[in-house]
Write the structure tokens for this entry.
Amino acid sequence: MNGTWRNWAGNQRTRPVRTVHARDTGEVADAVRAAAEDGLRVKAIGSGHSFTGVGVADGVAIAAPSDPAGIRLDGEIAHVPAGVTLRALNRRLWELGRALPNLGDIDAQTVAGAISTGTHGTGAGYRGIATQVEGVQLVLADGTVRHPGGDELAAARIGLGALGVLTGVSLRTVPAFRLHAVESVRPLPEVLDGLDGLAAAHDHVEFYWFPHTDLAVLKTNDRTDAEGPRRGRAAGWIGDELLGNSGFGLACRAGELAPPLVPRLNDFVARRMPAGGYVGRSYEVFCSPRRVRFLEMEYAVPRAALPEAFDGLRTAADRHGHGVTFPVEVRVLGADDVPLSTAYGRDTAYLAVHVRAGRPHETYFGAVEPVLSALDGRPHWGKLHTMTAATLRSRYPAYDDVVAVRDRLDPEGRFRNPYLDRVLGVPCASPT
């Protein structure tokens, strides 16, 4: 199958030589061997929720097996076809009485895409999805199938698609649980000054700051044995659809037409964001629909650097984000040991900036990035940034270990693309 591929935001496009929708690992292996015979590079494609070129294929694009019927549970370990979406996985796990302990706020990604780019969620006592990986099935550059261990498995947990094509992932799960969500509009100084206490008191904490205002929308999620109060259908529609999507989209367009109105628009929207509490299934509380398409840049900084990072970001937004209606998202996460995780070896704070898809972002993002980079910031692998291998090597203590695994498994660069060349360098035996 041939055709033009584009990511969700529309800022990455390509026309692969061919696209293969594989039904099983054998078909992936056949596609990789055929690509090698034709001298073509290979890239696994997911649902396109990365803003960077990490999933852009210029040779053979392979969609990994994605049938949810292939999900099976072995004790607390879920074995999952790599192309299954988080949405499908979450629903099936719930039916089996299980859940993932932490999720981001979007569930459209494939499992392979989510772990390969470091999808993380929030919670000072929790970690990103890749830390739940117990094993993977990987098709290598010569078409052989590997169940890696040791340093290879460590690298594959967040492998950027550089090691091979993931066809299966084994994830550690927990018993299914409900979350009590509380959302409120607060003065920004109150949230900033109290964030450490909030992060200690709640399982999951995040806040959204609307640029050019002194308001933040605070969200806390806590595990609960209660089954209510439930979120009413009308409240869900108002929060997710009217304010979160349709109404917010209108506010974005109004701000683009009249930038001087943005501070008042942001204040108006922030004050009308839903407030209150409800109880729901974990994945339904963690994740929410995103129909206003956007571009995003996110940096991870040491958690202790959050106050300085936020102050610098706010100054940059005031000077260079005059027409920005999208809020800044701030989250926290515990340290982990995944080599290319943005939380590797340190408790972490995440700061994410957004603009509506199709709108200029370079000036705003370009002003924010050096502020966060200067604080030993690490960019999210799937979100826009300008870092290169030379800089990234100094940010990740185990960076060279991952590159060594990549060079060993794919010395000729079968799984290269321009983005991977920029962030990992060219494999040792690959033609330039």
